[in-house]
Amino acid sequence: MFAWLCTDPVGTDNLQWQELPTPAPGKGEVLVRIRAASLNFPDVLIVQNKYQIKPDLPFVPGSEYAGIVEAVGEGVTHLQVGQRVAALSGTGGFATHAVVAAQLCMPLADAFSFEDAAAFIMTYATSCHALLDRGQLQPDETVLVLGAAGGVGTAAIQIAKAHGARVIAAASSDDKLALCRQIGADATINYQTQDLREALRSLTKGKGPDVVYDPVGGDYAEPAFRSIAWRGRYLVVGFAASAQIPTLPMNLPLLKGASLVGVFWGAFSQKEPAANAAMLQQLATWYVQGRIKPVLDGTLPMQELKRAYARMGQRAVRGKLVLVND
């Protein structure tokens, strides 16, 4: 097998494409021949030693991937050799093969392409857990999606629309907003050229959004919270644009009767596995029905991983970048 190996987490320059022994699956594990893997924001942080998870060195980055089961370990009965699966294991995906715990594998219907499957679990599970579980989004409510053209942002737009909500998408360019309208956003805000609070006031007739979905943080966190509707829910998803985690005056939730809600899908999936499995099944059903579909910025050969990292660093990615093996 070949893999991108991180021996010193100081950035992408130190990653090396190397030939390694193909591992055998242990008890409760499967060996997956990887067909596609997506690049997520945690994959950027982990090779810079900035992520909350610090894997032992050396490690293979790549948290999310899809492929075909080539071997099964002792005790694995629900997966078979030749089965199509997607997995989210935190590391191991930027390679030709990976050993992964069988319980982390999501069986794929034939209708699920490997490219879509590799770009599915993290963004759609995060957004669904955020909006429907933590945010308790109701049909006919209005949700503001910040960073709306990114991976989790595009997933949030589709899930909110599938649930019957009105979506206001906010992003940093007109091209990104055109993509958001294409996948279902009802209204858009360019927060580089428009005043966020004034635009929200106009689009909601002064009421404000019922739910704010924020994977960005940064300078727009406070104006977005100041614009939230009475009894609104502000979903803290991540800090993709923040060198520092933003702070909010604590009187704002009081004045708005609003909730500041943390979203940590990874912990939810571990602490409430049955609820997470049911959610993933619902998402898979929506995919087969054509109600949701990952937005792919493009695909690159697995050997061009550093080019993919560079594109993400330039904030040029719309949706998800996927690396593929021949």
Automatic annotation (TrEMBL):
Signal peptide: none annotated. It holds the Pfam family ADH_zinc_N. InterPro entries: ADH-like_C, ADH-like_N, ER, GroES-like_sf, NAD(P)-bd_dom_sf, Quin_OxRdtase/zeta-crystal_CS, Zn-ADH-like_protein. CDD domains: QOR1. GO terms for molecular function: oxidoreductase activity; zinc ion binding. It comes from the Bacteria. Residues 11-323 form the Enoyl reductase (ER) domain. This is NADPH:quinone oxidoreductase. It comes from Lampropedia cohaerens.
